[in-house]
Amino acid sequence: MRLDIVSLFFLFCIGCKKDYNSEMDNIKYINEKYVLIDNPSLLVSDDRYCTLENNRYPIEEIVKYDSLGKAIEVFKSGSEGFIIYQKEHIKNKTLPFTNEMWEYSIRLSAENKMVIDNNDSLAIEKITEDKIITKPDKNNRFRIYTYESN
User: Fold this and answer.
1) What is the rounded distance in angstroms from the CA atom of residue 81 to the CA atom of residue 89?
2) Per-residue pLDDT tens for 80-121?
3) Is residue 147 within 8 Å of residue 29, measured between CB atoms?
4) Is 100:74 a contact under the CB 8 Å cutoff?
5) For residue 84, what is the enclosing H or E element?
6) Distances from the Cα of 113 to the Cαs of 25, 60, 95, 124, 128, in angstroms?
């Protein structure tokens, strides 16, 4: 009898397992990344928050990607707003990419349910109609990726 209950529980758990593969099949490419600080009480200026499920999280960085997963624009949070870096920068308006930014890349691993962000493998917590949300990392940061659908 105990074996039947354990087997039934195991089958129930498999049936309830989140199927990210089918959700990820609809993703053509990631077009933006928002690095958020998992501390809604941290105060920054109003234009540097992202609202998620009725909580406002401070934005540390925004990266825009092309369809190949390469960075084209980076917005880093500064004391007086965002500092804008562009792959093809505009003199006196934006800054050129740093050496590190030229290496920024993004891709998905559906079989591992991960986002591969540069060389970091980030576990996916949730996929919505237009966003991928990762779990917070050891530095209390999590990421929201927006994507283009098929």
Assistant:
1) 18
2) 788 999 998 888 888 999 999 999 999 998 787 889 999 889
3) yes
4) no
5) strand 81-86
6) 12, 24, 34, 6, 14
Determine the 3-state secondary structure of 128 from DSSP.
coil
Amino acid found at 102: W
Q: Which residue has the tokens 């050496």?
A: 99
Contact 35, 145 (CB under 8 A): no
Q: What is the Cα–Cα distance from 143 to 17, expressed in whole angstroms?
A: 23
Single pTM value for the model? 0.80
Q: Which two tokens stand for residue 79?
A: 């004391």
49, 58 contact by CB (below 8 A): yes
Assigned token pair, 71: 């960075």
DSSP tag of 11: H
Write out the two tokens for 91. Answer: 């003199």
Residue 150 near residue 139, CB atoms below 8 Å: no
